[in-house]
């Protein structure tokens, strides 16, 4: 607002008030404390600091109106950042600003009346310009406040992400213990936990938008680490929450592939759970949307540690089965899995497969021919069990191979 846009009587009124800033600040301080409860207490902003800010703002406002200062909004910008750091609610800060401009307007109008009708007319003619100045100051304060709050949120996210890394990346020399991390993240050290790894797809900034709101409604605690391609979360289900209910909430918002670990009982198991959740995600077809959760089966850690070794093992054990035509291959694998899950009971396996137990026995004899040994041999049975666990973990290992 150039000084030439203001009539000389208005500039004179502002210059006269500029010499009374200290007295005016005391009066405005009393009005703000009287009308805004949060300023009445000094728990957030002390009276001395508030008065200092009032002086700085009136100096810039009256300086602009008097023509002695140019376009300077450093005072409201400083107040915006300061009040954000103090966690003062923005509506209350803006309310104090409106009171401040109303107070300055009252004093200008009173001085104009004392000076004469010419000054009153000049002030009324420039009222729009003065209130535009109020908008400029309020906008500068709001932008500064929001920028500071955004910076604080980013810093808090970085700090929280760094803290959670202490358990997701495993123990390291000098790092925080899992118990310390639990305290800092406001999570229990013992309970029921899951690790979730969600793929960030396309131009989406979040893999699981608004999931934390849904988790809070389920009374599920969570802590997250964001990466360019993935979002990683540790979920605390408490003692009673059904994991399937939580996974349903995840599925409602997922935009891409999501891998979920088996349940674990102590927070120091997060690093292992992360590895398993990553494997679960990687076994879903690229470009699809869905959730896969690994079971905590025997040998799972050995299977996921070295994929190439696991693949070679499966081929060694099941090569002749995997070389069968698609229908025969899937039938043999399903029968083998059902027979093992039924602890060698053909009758129970038949119920699982919806076929007669004699059919199961016939298929098992064929399976033994392909395996090159009897399932009464503990070594053959152990190899088959482990190979089937590998296929459950990495479904692509059950694909057909050349004879």
Radius of gyration: 35 Å
Shape: rod-shaped
Helix count from the secondary structure assignment = 18
Order of helices and strands: HHHHHHHHHEHEEHEEHEHHHHHH
Total count of domains = 3
Helix/sheet category: alpha+beta
Please give a structural write-up.
There is one protein chain. This protein has 403 residues and is α+β, with helices and mostly antiparallel strands. It has three domains: 3-151, Globin-like; 178-296, Alpha-Beta Plaits (2-Layer Sandwich), CATH 3.30.70; 304-398, PucR C-terminal helix-turn-helix domain (Arc Repressor Mutant, subunit A, Orthogonal Bundle). It has helices at residues 8-18, 21-35, 37-40, 47-66, 74-85, 90-115, 117-125, 127-168, 178-185, 211-217, 243-253, 270-282, 300-305, 307-322, 326-341, 346-353, 357-371, 378-393, and strands at 190-199, 221-226, 230-236, 257-260, 264-266, 290-293. Strand 2 and strand 3 form a beta hairpin. Helix 5 (74-85) packs parallel to helix 8. The radius of gyration is 35 Å and the shape is rod-shaped.
List keywords for this structure.
403 residues; alpha+beta; Globin-like; Alpha-Beta Plaits; Arc Repressor Mutant, subunit A; 3 domains; 18 helices; rod-shaped
Summarize the structure.
The protein has helices at 8-18, 21-35, 37-40, 47-66, 74-85, 90-115, 117-125, 127-168, 178-185, 211-217, 243-253, 270-282, 300-305, 307-322, 326-341, 346-353, 357-371, 378-393, and strands at residues 190-199, 221-226, 230-236, 257-260, 264-266, 290-293. The chain is of the alpha+beta class and 403 residues long.
Secondary-structure topology with pairs:
Layout: H1 8-18, H2 21-35, H3 37-40, H4 47-66, H5 74-85, H6 90-115, H7 117-125, H8 127-168, H9 178-185, E1 190-199, H10 211-217, E2 221-226, E3 230-236, H11 243-253, E4 257-260, E5 264-266, H12 270-282, E6 290-293, H13 300-305, H14 307-322, H15 326-341, H16 346-353, H17 357-371, H18 378-393
Parallel strand pairs: 4-6
Antiparallel strand pairs: 1-3, 1-4, 1-5, 2-3
